[in-house]
Amino acid sequence: MSRPKTKFVQARRNYNSVHYFPFGNEPGDSYVLTSDPWNYLKAFLKSEHDKIKKRTTKNAPIKDRLNKALYFVSLAESFLKSADNVEMPTKGTLTYYYILNLTKAFLLVRGYDLETNTEYHGLSLNSSDTDNLTISKNATGSGINIFHSFANELGYTLNPGDKINLKDMVSNLPEIHEMAFNLGLLNKSKRKFLPIKIEFVSNENRWTKLTYRICYEKKHKNTYRVEKFTTGQLASLLVKSDDINEQEVFTSKQIRSLTHNSDTSWCSNYAELCAEIKKLNVRLMLTRQGYKYYIDLQPDKYDTLIYSYALMFYIGSVARYRPTLNEEILEGDYKAIISETMKSTPKQYLYQITGLITKKICAIPMANLD
User: Residue 270: exposed, middle, or buried by beta-carbon count in 10 A (0-12, 13-18, 19+)?
Assistant: First the structure.
């Protein structure tokens, strides 16, 4: 007689449902709901700075970097607030400088030493190019390329000399994906961001196993390339499970042993499964209902935050140096998509970078009506 099939249900830690986030948070962490992520981020950095009471050889550099991070966060906030009060193309320039300075704060928290080394943007819009950015060569000596370092911290390696095309940039932001698709501006023939649910699950009653499953609605079969679940990376990591109502379900092949009353077991297993989920090219978009998840079924080289940075660099560079190109592209076929990007992407970037810096799930309160 065969053994009964293990029943998996929503995993809970300390009565809190466990969900996927890429921020380095602990399993079961609650949302930090804030309409003003700037104040939350500055309060976090100040708290971390003030915890270091005594300057020693080991902790003095950390304290100094936190102080610099606070400076760059304040600078980024000022640039974004200024950008909100002007029109394009000035808005494009100010928004890029917001992105740059917030990214520098992130790098300082991650241990990079800025100010004492020569800094480079890491990207260029060459005079012979109209819709391509060029990844700069690696910095020499003690110099630092901000874009390269940022990509490295997110787990990506850049190839100097490679191009990033404008269509690649607008194709890889979930917040403008549907508009870009309908305007024919994607570099793909089908929508690439499949809406999904990610559920961490455990064996009912015993709670000795931890894994996750991914669900998508069957109605998406005809509009997305869901056949990708049967090949490549998705097929190597996931296995088809029984459908749940009108949803297709795939469960991770990795089922980890869990000691339910052990914080160490929870955190290590959760981190391992989150690392696997990242390999599936899962992307996030923040809404008033929390984070929405998508699988990128036609992934390009990098993730959303990297393409967001690149697009803002492109818009800012065109605004500063290329008035003719500004008329041709930013005021031409791309006008609607750039306008939408300038309204939505800066806030997406702010909340997600805040999450990466604080290792908390920073989100918009539902009561925020702005």
Answer: buried
pLDDT tens profile 228-282:
999 999 999 999 998 888 999 999 999 999 999 999 999 999 999 999 999 999 9
**CB-based contact 325:317 (threshold 8 Å):** no
Closest CA relative to residue 233, chosen from 258, 250, 256: 250
Helix, strand, or coil here: 9?
A: strand
Residue pair 291/21 in contact (Cβ under 8 Å)? The answer is: yes
Cα(185)–Cα(276) distance, integer angstroms: 31
Cβ neighbours of residue 174 under 8 Å, at least 6 residues apart? Answer: 193, 283, 284, 285, 292, 294, 304
Q: Where are the beta strands (DSSP E) in 126-192?
A: 132-135, 144-145, 163-165
Task: Produce one character per residue of 273-303: b if its CB has 16 or more CB atoms within 10 Å, e if not.
Answer: bbebbeebbbbbbbeeeebbbbbbbbebebb
Do 297 and 224 form a contact (C-beta atoms < 8 A)? yes
Alpha-carbon gap, residue 248 to 242, rounded angstroms: 8
